[in-house]
Design brief:
- The protein has 329 residues and is of the alpha+beta class.
- The protein is elongated.
- The protein is built from 14 helices and 4 strands.
- Strands 1-2-3-4 form a 4-stranded antiparallel β-sheet.
Length: 329
């Protein structure tokens, strides 16, 4: 069955003309909303708009703006609707929102995506002098994440190999099974002093000795220390903050988008451009890593407009099936 006839049967009336990235993002979002609606209701435009408006009080402003734009785009393509009905439904979407209480931050929104050097020093100093079992290891985990860009989960299988005077990390890409990595493995070349190499070897051995216990213990140790240092902050450092700061450092040091994607294990360049630390937050002197040429060759450059389209959909995308638990990805 052609894509045109399939779309018309779904009630959207899309033609088969090529879509822009923004139009494709809107179409995907509308399809998700429609699927949610038809799980409990027979398809009907009026009923769908009423249902969507009923969801609005629980949505953040950015989420509602995207939902509204996606549904408006679908309404414009719905050729089966008479113009008066289409105009009425569009006007309903533009109804001002009633006042509502401020929603709490989501878990991901509570995690800092940048770490000032002064804050890093305070946090590491506190952890290193604390007596808890996991405090010292959590300080080193944050530091090595900042220097290597590894996801917390990726330390479970990381291997340090010697390459002349320098070392390289062989890292199993956590998102490979989801098709979001440039390959199953990546290589991170590191410029380290001998004593730094020894410290990294020791860190990997401690983390991998009992990874589930180490991850849970270090995550909680870091949470407690950051909460005590900055009790009023809404965003505090987590183990994943090191990866965000690595991205910012790489951008500040002048690495290309393809090089950064290769170091972070991304299949395309838009991922780190949209979701990770920004250049303005970077410290160029803290970049000790360089990508492997074979990894760079596997990265796909995102087409023009993909960055904007992904920014548009980033905040409201639902969790993917089989996604790694929060904090591990």
């Amino acid at each position: 069955m052609s894509s045109m006839s399939s779309d018309k049967e779904r009630g959207t009336g899309h033609d088969s003309a090529p879509m822009t990235d923004t139009a494709a993002a809107y179409a995907a979002r509308f399809a998700q909303l429609r699927t949610r609606f038809v799980r409990a209701h027979p398809w009907d435009w009026d009923g769908f708009i009423d249902w969507l408006l009923a969801q609005r009080p629980a949505l953040r402003a950015a989420s509602w703006r995207q939902y509204r734009a996606a549904v408006k785009a679908a309404l414009e393509q719905a050729q089966e609707l008479p113009d008066p009905q289409r105009q009425h439904l569009t006007a309903a979407l533009d109804t001002p929102a009633p006042a509502r209480p401020r929603l709490p931050l989501r878990t991901s929104a509570r995690k800092a995506r940048a770490l000032r050097l002064a804050d890093l020093d305070r946090l590491v100093d506190r952890l290193l002098v604390s007596p808890g079992r996991w405090d010292g290891l959590s300080a080193r985990w944050l530091w090595w994440g900042l220097l290597t860009g590894l996801r917390p989960i990726e330390w479970r299988d990381a291997r340090l190999q010697q390459a002349g005077s320098d070392g390289c990390l062989r890292v199993r890409n956590a998102k490979h099974s989801q098709g979001r990595a440039h390959g199953e493995w990546r290589t991170v070349h590191l410029t380290l002093q001998p004593e730094e190499t020894s410290a990294l070897v020791q860190f990997i051995a401690e983390v991998q000795a009992d990874f589930p216990a180490a991850f849970t213990g270090c995550r909680m140790a870091l949470y407690r220390a950051a909460s005590r240092l900055w009790p009023r902050r809404q965003q505090r450092p987590s183990l994943y903050t090191g990866r965000h700061q690595f991205s910012a450092n790489a951008k500040a040091a002048g690495l290309s988008p393809v090089q950064i994607a290769a170091l972070m294990g991304h299949a395309v360049t838009a991922t780190h451009q949209v979701h990770y630390g920004k250049r303005r937050s970077g410290h160029r002197d803290l970049l000790y890593a360089q990508p492997d040429a074979q990894d760079v060759a596997r990265v796909r450059v995102s087409p023009p407009g993909a960055w904007a389209a992904r920014r548009l959909s980033a905040e409201t995308s639902p969790p993917e099936a089989g996604a790694v638990a929060p904090g591990l990805d």
